[in-house]
Write a sequence for this structure.
């Protein structure tokens, strides 16, 4: 049986698309993938999602989005889509247990924080290594924090982490930062922030939890071991779009190419959220993209 619409991903983009598509009687199938809720579900306090003046927890927000979408007929499927054939409609999707044929697809697979790829990083995830200041900053009150990266995220999150840490060192592989001037000025004025320029982390070491990192100066080659409790990595994101490589147009980083109405390079396939958006990257903007993609999918199906 050919279904009308599949939504791949169940973060704010996918779940908002599901709500709108549900209300348009498209009975969308929503494939959850490896982690229900996406990045926002790994966040504790969400204070900038309109409509919740007291803030709420990330998982609470995605659970509420799920219930709202299900109320209008969205069908949440706890499967990960592992292969797709988008060469012509009906499009074919397969998980490890089932195969599906659908008339239209919304890709809302989101993005994953990039890793440093150094020894000790994987071993200490959740035990001193983190990719989410909002999630984990609280655990580092009066502790030594190291932030890696030289972009807006490193600066914004580094500033946020000064609420908790005794000191926040921003380690960057070059002398110059890519972060915007305002963030750079704010960081420079913050007494808790120090900069370690032209340096990379070579290794993260500890015993059950992070204790120190080995830093290498990329200009002089000098190596130094320095005590640290928390290593927060903000070196960009990688869109979760490998599945579509060779079938949909994407940029050199893997972000899907879309037009202003979120149509991808294949008619009937739409994208919403961080699978295509490398700029705004907010739960509310992803939700907005989800709404737009569902409205376009509805029009596409109506015209078919
Ligand atoms: P980004 O701008 O791509 O910056 C990533 C940083 O990580 C760069 O400084 C890069 O170094 C460094 N880096 C990359 N790979 C590395 C590696 N393997 N080891 C060490 N360092 C590495 O990413 P982002 O900061 O997440 O920002 C992404 C987008 O969102 C940007 O367009 C940004 O403007 C936007 N954003 C805006 C705000 C805001 O408040 N306006 C906040 C957050 C994000 P190089 O500089 O040497 O390349």
């Amino acid at each position: 049986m050919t279904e009308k619409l599949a939504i791949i991903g169940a973060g704010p983009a996918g779940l908002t698309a599901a709500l709108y598509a549900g209300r348009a009687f498209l009975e969308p199938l929503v494939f959850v993938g490896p982690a229900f809720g996406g990045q926002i579900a790994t966040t504790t306090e969400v204070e900038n999602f309109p409509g919740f003046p007291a803030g709420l927890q990330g998982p609470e927000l995605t659970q509420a989005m799920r219930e709202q979408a299900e109320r209008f007929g969205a069908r949440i499927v706890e499967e990960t889509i592992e292969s797709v054939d988008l060469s012509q409609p009906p499009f074919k999707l397969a998980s490890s247990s089932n195969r599906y044929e659908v008339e239209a697809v919304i890709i809302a697979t989101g993005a994953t924080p990039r890793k440093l790829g150094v020894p000790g990083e994987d071993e200490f995830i959740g035990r001193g290594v983190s990719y989410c200041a909002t999630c984990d900053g609280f655990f580092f009150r009066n502790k030594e924090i190291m932030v890696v990266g030289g972009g807006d995220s490193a600066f914004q999150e580094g500033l946020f982490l000064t609420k908790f840490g005794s000191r926040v060192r921003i380690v960057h592989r070059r002398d110059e930062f890519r972060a915007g001037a305002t963030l750079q000025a704010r960081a420079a004025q913050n007494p808790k922030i120090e900069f370690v320029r032209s340096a990379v982390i070579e290794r993260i070491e500890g015993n059950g939890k992070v204790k120190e990192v080995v830093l290498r100066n990329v200009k002089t080659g000098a190596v130094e071991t320095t005590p640290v409790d928390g290593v927060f990595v903000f070196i960009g994101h990688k869109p979760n779009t490998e599945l579509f490589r060779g079938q949909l147009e994407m940029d050199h980083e893997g972000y899907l190419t879309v037009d202003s109405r979120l149509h991808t390079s294949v008619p009937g396939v739409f994208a919403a959220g961080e699978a295509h958006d490398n700029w705004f990257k907010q739960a509310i903007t992803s939700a907005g993209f989800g709404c737009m993609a569902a409205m376009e999918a509805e029009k596409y199906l109506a015209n078919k």
